[in-house]
Structures are given as structure tokens and as C-alpha cells.
Amino acid sequence: MHIEEIKIENFRLLQDCFLDMSEKTTILVGKNNTGKTSFASLLERFLEKPDNFTYTDFPISIREKLLGIDEETNVEELAIRLVLRIAYDETDDLAILSEFMLDLDSTRRHTNILFECCIDKTKLLRVLPSDPKERKKFIENNLGGKFLKIKVYAFDDFGHADQTPYYLAHRDQLEEKERSEIRALLNFQVIHARRNVASSEDAGRGAKPLSAISTKFFRKRDIEADADDNDAATGGAGGESIEKLRSMLASIDDQLGEQYTQVFGGFLKSSRDFLELGDLKVVSNIQSQSLIETSSQVIYGETGNFLPEHYSGLGYLNILYLLLQIELCRDDFTRRNAPLNLLLIEEPEAHTHPQMQYVFADKIQGLISQVPNLQALLTTHSSHIVSKSKFEDVRYLSRPSPAEPVTIKNFHTDLSAKYEELGADGAALFQFLKQYLTINSAELFFASKAIFIEGTTERILLPLFIELHDKENVDETTENGLSSQNISVLEVGANARAFAPFLEFIGVRTLVITDIDTTKAVISEKMGKTSYLAWPVAESSHTSNETLKHFLSAPDPTEEKDFSDWHKRLVDGAASSGEGQIELAYQHAEDGYHARSFEDAFISINLDKVKARKDTLAGLKNRDKLEKFSGNDFYSLTADILGKKSDFAGSVLYLALVEGESWRVPKYIMDGLKWIHKN
Predict the structure, then answer these.
(1) What are the residue boundaries of the Endonuclease GajA/Old nuclease/RecF-like AAA domain, all occurrences included (predicted)?
(2) pLDDT tens digits, residue range 252-290?
(3) Contact 451/510 with Cβ under 8 angstroms?
(4) What is d(CA 480, CA 489) in angstroms, rounded to the nearest whole number?
(5) What contacts 297, CB < 8 A, 6 or more positions away?
(6) Quick count: other Cβ atoms within 10 Å of Cβ 467?
(7) Which of 23, 45, 65, 658 has its CA 20 to 30 A from that of 480?
(8) If we measure between CA atoms, which residue out of 221, 412, 442 comes closest to residue 335?
(9) 100 and 113 in contact (C-beta within 8 Å)?
């Protein structure tokens, strides 16, 4: 038995969202302001705190109708809703779930629960002012509490195929349920992102969050032991340990009582004589919970030479706090033994460094698997956690523009379908994407824009080029330079085309900086076989760059006339991918020369400076050829003088940053940076 689907309507940015749940762990990811926090908040509102809805929870798109409410308004269209679709099979214990099963058809494998927050039109209209301004202000300040009706229904939509949701089309078929029935069926626990951890000198003088939650943990175990010494939730070592602690404290009470008699003897005798009281005594009564709360602390290091908890880094405090919270939740899940358990963890990465996020992502699955019928929802901004998660578990919250509502996409099933549309290559490209989706590319889930580059040289120099772009476009970038935008840079080699469906899927505008990589068809005299050799642009006939072929829609090379026309447009810069979210930046003719790669493009426009710095630039060979060079065959020159590309790029960067050398940026790169900055 598990929650198979969650549907949300009319809550903040989540106007009409659908989430298909994994049976164990579902990872909710997305950029800022795409509704991750709202999703978590709605679950908690309906499942734990149903009286907390206010005017601001209703989406902006329906507020005009809400503010204009009258007798004719259909308030059901404005209601905030959460629908849980629950899947079960014949092996499940359906004793509690049967209360929500309205059709006993043995072929059924689903039932539905509707949570609804609806405006009480009668009550609201009775007190609404007539003046429009006062009316608006009243609704904004008072809509909530007694003016909202929060109800829970079970419904059966078996065989329902209409576009109108069953719970709107067949209101008379909904069966209202009590909240006590929901609590018996579903145990919901949440660990919030705003955890009470702090690491500072002030923390040492104030609250100790780990000690506080340790106290909470002990108190819970102690109460459970009181309720039932054989309770399974505390059983075994936990319950026995609590009993041993109580026994030890009772013995201490006896010993302290004897000492109190001696210490307070004179005072007690005077009190008895003066007040004529009976057998007045001072006794010891140590309470285990109070002792833990006031006299215990979490430390690290040797007991005789330790450091207090607030000396720990925030990352350690956060993880320890998380683990204790998870342990508390596990205890509650086990003790209540509900048919369905749902644990929501908001942003587990808070305060933790990347390696610890990796560890948490690995370990959380094991913790979750120890609780029967437990499903977990994790909301995260961490590319580290995403890259360590199963693709099948990732759900992406997408909001193409501020004016559009949020949608929730199944990363694996929705995206694999897009790759299948590519035909025979689709499966291989999708497999490549899954293997490549490491920490760097997982950042795309949270980026506003992306830049794809080919290799190490571009990766080393791109930050410098971005800085130069911002300086040259100071009027446009004073407030929001390219360097301050949320951009992910990925080194993908010649495989940018493998990301095309993925980029479309997540809606990230992307600049692809690549090389024209021109070749020429050469027929072997001996074998009669055609080979495509690297060749200067001016004399080329083809390109080996699959990225350019894909995004610029190259025709089949066997269609020689069409391909030749396309290749000419490519060289002239006239081949277009059309208006879209992906822009190609590759070499065009500049200063009378058309480069084939980044290196010869850079050397061609910086020749005088390269000559002047030839003895200090690393990665060069045959330096004497620089002085002898004439003409514009930079393609051959680059091949002759360039040794290790990464050393050359690092040296170019060093001279710019340390010695102030003002290198020129190839125009195709600068034009590309201008595009990604403005779009």
C-alpha cells in the first residue's frame, strides 16, 4: 500500500499540479520560487494544521473572482484542494483503508482521498462591507478561520473518463470523513528546513539545540515506557535502559535523603517546633526528564577533555539534528503502526558541505527502508543530493515564466519519452545523459541559464571572458552583470546534442560554445575510400561537429547538393537553428581570417601579444616560428606552435590577472555571451 499520486489545486503557485510518487523516496527539485516550499506547506496544512489557511494562500489568478464574491459565485471552483490516490493490492491489510473504499469491486486497486478548503460563502457575504475598497481590505485581512470550511472526503472515480474531475462532476458521490479516520490511516511527519541549529559563541550561552532534541527524544521514550513497558516502539534495549536509569535514580534518591537529614536537621527541627508541624522532611526526587534536560549536554572529544556542542560546525550540528529528528519520526511511525507513513524532509543539505551531502544521500535510503510502509519526500536545492539519487525518483518543478503556473515533471519517464522521439539514437543518448549527470550537470536543475563548452581551454578562460564582457558592456551590466547571474557552465565536449531534450525539458536557456571543426572529403588513391580529414575552413567541405549538425539541422551528407549548400551557410554564419532557447556560438571570419578552433581564433586576433609574450607563455613549442610567421595561415601556425593547450590557457589567464595583459576575446564568444546575458 502506498500513495501513488498527489494532486494539488489552487494553492499559491501550485494551481493545477500532479505528482506521481515513488514507492519509497521522491526527490522534489527545481529553481527558487517554483513551489517546493509551498508543496511541503500544503501537505502539513491539510494533514497536521488544517486551520492555518489565509487569503494569501489562494493563487493570484483567482483572487479577482475571490474579491468579487457574490451569491452567484461558485466557490467550489476557488477551493484549495489536495487529492491523494492510494494504491493497494490483495496482500495489504485493508482493515483501516476499507473505510475509504466506496466500491468493493475485487478488481479495484485504488482509492482516493480529497482534502478541501472551501470558502463559506454564506458566512462571508453576511459580514462583507459594501464599499469595494473596504470589502477588499476585509477579505485580505480576515479570510481564514471561520470563513473557510475544511473537509475530507473519500471518493471512487473508477471508470471516470470525463475531463472534469470526478470530485467536481459528482459532488453528491463524495463521502465525508472524520480527521480521526485520516490519522488512523496516514501518519505524516515533517522535518522543516528551518532547523534550530547555530554555531557561535552566543550559542554557548543560550539554547543548545542538540541537547534540547536529545531531551525530546528521551522524553518520548520515557513516556512510551510509562504507557507500556512491553511496547514495541520502546522495546528491547531502549525500554530496559530507561528502567535501569529509573532504578539508579531511585537509589540516588535514597542516598541523598540520608544526607539531607543531616544537612537540614537543625532547620527541620526549628520548623517543626515553630510551626507545630508533624514529621517535616526534605527528600530527593530526581526526575529523569528534568535531569536530562538541565544537566546533560552533547559533547565531542574525550570525556575528560571535550568541546561543547556549539563548537561543532553547522554542518555537523545539522546532520546530527536531522538524524535525531529522523529517529524520533521512526519511533512514531513504529509506535502508531499506521497503514501509510509519509516523511517529508525539507532541504536536508542546509549548512552541510558537499561531501556530507553525498553521505546523507547515500545513508537516507537505508534509514527509510527500516520503516514498513514508509514513503519519503525530500525537497532540495542540492545538485550533490540529486546526482546521488536514482533518476526514477527525481521530480522537477518547472515554471517557464512568472506568468505561468508550476508543473511537476517526472524526470525519468517524461524525459525518456522525449529521447525516444529521436529514433534509433535516442536510447544511447539517454543512457549517456544518465551516466553524465554528475554533480556538474545536476546543477542544471537549479540554474537560470547554462553555458556548454567543449574543453579544458574554454573552461579555464571562460571566467576571464565573462569578466571582460561585463567590463565592455558596463552600461548594460551595472546592476546585473553576466557574472552575477545564476549560470551553470558544463564541459561537455562534442556531446552537447545529447542534452537537447533535457534542456527543453527543464526550460533552461543555453549557450553552446563550440568549434566549427571543418573537414574535407579525401578519397584514398589505393583504397578508393573516402576519409574526412581536418581542414582549414576556406577549403573545407564538411564538419565533424555533431552538435552543429544536430542543432542547425544539417541534411544527409549523401544528399550532396543540399549538404554543400548547408555547409556554405554554416561557414557564412547563415545557418540558423531558429528562435529558441539554445544559441550556437562557433567561429566566424574575423579580421580577415576564419578560424577552425578556439585556439587559432584566439592566436589570430592576439598574434602581436602572443609574440611579445612567447617566452613567458607556457604550453608553446617551436617559438621561433612565431617570429618567422607571415600571412594568415593561423591554422598551420597553431598546429606548429601549440603544445599543451591547458598550460597555454592557464598562462594566458595568469598574464591577464597578474600582469594586466589585455587579451582580445574572439568575437563569436563575445557575441554568444551578449546573447546569454540578454536572454
Answers:
(1) 1-386
(2) 767 767 776 776 666 556 555 555 555 656 666 655 555
(3) yes
(4) 18
(5) 208, 211, 308, 309
(6) 15
(7) 658
(8) 221
(9) yes
List C-alpha distances in Å: 268 to 256, 258, 285: 16, 14, 18
For the record, the C-alpha cell of 362 comes out as 547515500
- Cell 514507492, located at residue: 23
- Cα 501 from Cα 497, distance rounded (Å): 8
Mean pLDDT, all residues of the chain:
83
What is the 3-state secondary structure of 345-373?
EECCCCCCCHHHHHHHHHHHHHHHHCCCC
Which grid coordinates are listed for 308? 561543547
Q: Which of 369, 379, 372 is nearest to 408 (CA)?
A: 379
Cell of 212: 534540547
Distance between CA 179 and CA 168 in Å, rounded?
21
Strands 14-20 and 2-11: antiparallel
Strand partners, 188: 342
Name residues whose C-beta falls within 8 Å of residue 523's C-beta, 6 or more positions apart in sequence: 529, 530, 531
Sheet holding 530-534, edge to edge: 530-534, 518-523, 542-543
Q: Which residues does residue 28 pair with via DSSP β-bridges, in sequence order? A: 379, 395
**411-433 residue pLDDT tens:** 888 888 889 888 888 888 888 88
Question: Cα 541–545–551 angle (5° rounding)?
Answer: 105
- C-alpha cell recorded at residue 539: 577549403
CA distance 623 to 612: 11
Collapsed DSSP state (helix, strand, coil) of residue 440? helix
